[in-house]
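Handout, page 2. Input:
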Amino acid sequence: MVKIAFNSALAQKALGKEVPASEKDPEAASAPEGSEGSTGRCLLTLLGIAFILSGLIVGGACLYRYFTPKRLYHGAMQFSDVSAGIGGENQPYYLPRVEEEVEISDNMAVISVPPPRFRPGDPAYILHDFHRKLTAYLDLTLRTCFVIPLNTSVVLPPQDLMDLFMQLMSGSYRSYLVQEDLVVTERIDDIKPLGFYIRRLCDGKETYRMQRRVDLPGGKIQKRATEQCFTIHHFENKFVTETRICKA
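Output:
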C-alpha cells in the first residue's frame, strides 16, 4: 500500500487560501497601521507649530509698531515776527525762540511744546499720524484735544523731520513765523475711529474737530468777539508756526 502525504502550505494554496500576515509575522502586520498614525500626528504637530509661529510673527509686528521706543530729538528755532515789528539784521539777539522735543517713528510724530518764556502761548502735545493723515493738539492748560486733517504743506514727512532735528541738535536755527487760524466745528464723542495713537493721547479728554478758517464757507471770516482763542508756537518744518485755535 502506498501512503500519499500533502504539505499543509501547499494544500492551503491549492484551496485558494493564503496564510494571514499576522500568522506569519505579527510585528510586520501591525507596522503599516502604526506608521500611518505617526505620520498623521507629525503633520498635525507641524501645522500647530506653524500656526503658533505665524501668531508670534503677527503679534511681534504689532508690538513693534505700537510699543517700540521712538527716537527722541530736541531742537530750537529763533524766528522773526514781522507782524509784531520784530526782525531785521539789527536785532539778532532779541529774536523770539521756540524749543521742543519730538518723538519720531515711521508713521507718527509726537511734539512736546513747553510753555513759552517771553510770549503768550500754551504748552501742548502735538501728534501727527502720517498713516491716517490726522493731527491732534492736546492743550495741556485746557486738558482738551483738537483734531484736524494733517497739513502736509506744513508738516515734513518723518524722515525729513528727523533730518531737520539732526541739524537743530547741533545748534539753534534762525527762521521766520507762519500763522494759521483754526476754528472748532464740532465735538467728537467717539474717538476710536481716529486711530490708536490719537485715541491714546486723547483718552478721557474732551475732543473736538477743527477746520481752517480760510476753508470755512465764506472764505476768510474775521474772528468773532465772542470766540475764545489760545495760541501754540511750534515747528515741524524750517519755519515756526503760530497756531491759533478758537472756540465759539
